[in-house]
Task: inverse folding
């Protein structure tokens, strides 16, 4: 048994041993600059005629890696390889799928500083930001492995006299995963591992800004024994994933994180049935958004001020604080005096819609900010009653994902 899920601890870089490990990883990763990488289709390494380079954003003269530039026909091969592998992968027991994710989590822990270094040098992250990204990726592997086991177990159903109801979750098919550059490992890993854990196969096209980080993840998944064709890794321009594969009739679902403009385009293209398409595509699109941080009277003010200062949030002027509350504390004022205060945006709110009596409650997610992930499963409900031989299939989102919310 794997035990109860717990968030992966962050690395303490105030310790000299950890700093030395990080410095060594940066030297190791830097020694690979200029390396030519492969795409992987059906488990086989492939290269194409055209290539593009990934550069160190902190020193653009440094070429981090050289990658094949996939064309539409190459993307087609990747999708067909995923479709072929799906026929066997969908029948693999959930425990075997979960065990692969647990092995990948252990492998990522062993290579943690190398993954950190790749994000420092290819994505321009600071050491703590890169380490938080890796920690969240480990969380996703651990969390979705457990979720695969939970969804494979007995599910609650509504009893009815004369019927024997049964609810099962089944995989959808081939999914297209399009992650962003700003969380190049965590979000990429989360969307991909959720789909694989649920029994789907994946065509993964990382951001053209951070393909080496995606290649390291692909190597990790191959090293733990993910079967050929279950994860297909292609690199190239956004049009290959965001246009051709989104429109493809054999693409079953799309998991996208990026800008609002591109995300709305993905939703629009996926919503139009292509010739030969036999299902409605599922889309999970996480686009630009804003979060809020609320500091209440019971908070640790020093920790809260430090965390908010280190985050990307823009403070707004608080309401008048009651005497003795956290906002009126001198310590809070000292720590936040340098903040650039923005006026809150006033937006008219529509009247609340009626709520059903049996509204479902969201489950706890592994991080502070919940986000949806791959639409990895559909439900199948069967009954022995003559008047209801088969219930309609309904979609679910595999689980909730979260961006690391720790300071």
Result:
């Amino acid at each position: 048994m794997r035990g109860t899920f717990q968030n992966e601890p962050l690395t303490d870089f105030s310790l000299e041993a950890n700093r030395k490990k990080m410095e060594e990883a940066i030297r190791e990763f830097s020694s690979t600059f200029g390396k030519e990488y492969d795409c992987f289709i059906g488990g086989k390494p492939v290269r194409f005629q055209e290539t593009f380079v990934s550069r160190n954003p902190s020193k653009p003269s440094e070429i981090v890696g050289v990658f094949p530039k996939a064309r539409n026909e190459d993307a087609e091969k990747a999708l067909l390889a995923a479709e072929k592998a799906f026929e066997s992968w969908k029948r693999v027991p959930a425990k075997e799928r979960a065990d692969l994710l647990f092995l990948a989590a252990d492998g990522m822990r062993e290579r943690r500083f190398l993954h950190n270094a790749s994000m420092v040098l290819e994505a321009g992250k600071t050491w703590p930001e890169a380490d938080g990204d890796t920690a969240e990726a480990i969380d996703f592997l651990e969390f979705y492995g457990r979720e695969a086991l939970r969804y494979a177990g007995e599910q609650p159903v509504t009893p009815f006299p004369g019927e024997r109801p049964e609810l099962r979750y089944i995989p959808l098919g081939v999914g297209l995963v399009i992650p962003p550059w700003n969380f190049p490992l965590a979000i990429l890993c989360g969307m991909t591992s959720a789909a694989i854990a649920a029994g789907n196969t994946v065509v993964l096209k990382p951001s053209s800004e951070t393909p080496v980080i995606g290649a390291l993840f692909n190597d990790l998944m191959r090293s733990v024994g993910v079967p050929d064709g279950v994860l297909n890794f292609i690199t190239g321009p956004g049009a290959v994933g965001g246009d051709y594969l989104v429109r493809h009739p054999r693409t079953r679902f799309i998991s996208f994180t990026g800008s609002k403009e591109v995300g709305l385009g993905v939703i629009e293209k996926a919503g139009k049935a292509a010739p030969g398409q036999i299902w409605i595509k599922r889309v999970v699109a996480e686009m630009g958004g804003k979060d809020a941080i609320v500091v209440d009277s019971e908070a640790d003010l020093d920790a809260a001020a430090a965390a908010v200062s280190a985050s990307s949030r823009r403070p707004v002027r608080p309401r008048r604080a009651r005497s003795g509350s956290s906002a009126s504390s001198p310590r809070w004022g000292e720590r936040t005096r340098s903040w650039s205060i923005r006026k809150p945006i006033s937006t008219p709110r529509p009247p609340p819609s009626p709520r059903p009596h049996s509204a479902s409650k969201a489950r706890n997610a592994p991080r502070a900010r919940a986000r949806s992930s791959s639409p990895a499963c559909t439900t199948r409900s069967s009954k022995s009653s003559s008047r209801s031989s088969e219930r309609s299939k309904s979609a679910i989102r595999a689980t909730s994902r979260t961006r690391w919310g720790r300071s």
Q: What stands out?
A: Confidence is low (pLDDT under 50) at residues 353-374, 381-407. The CA atoms of residues 198 and 376 lie 6 Å apart.
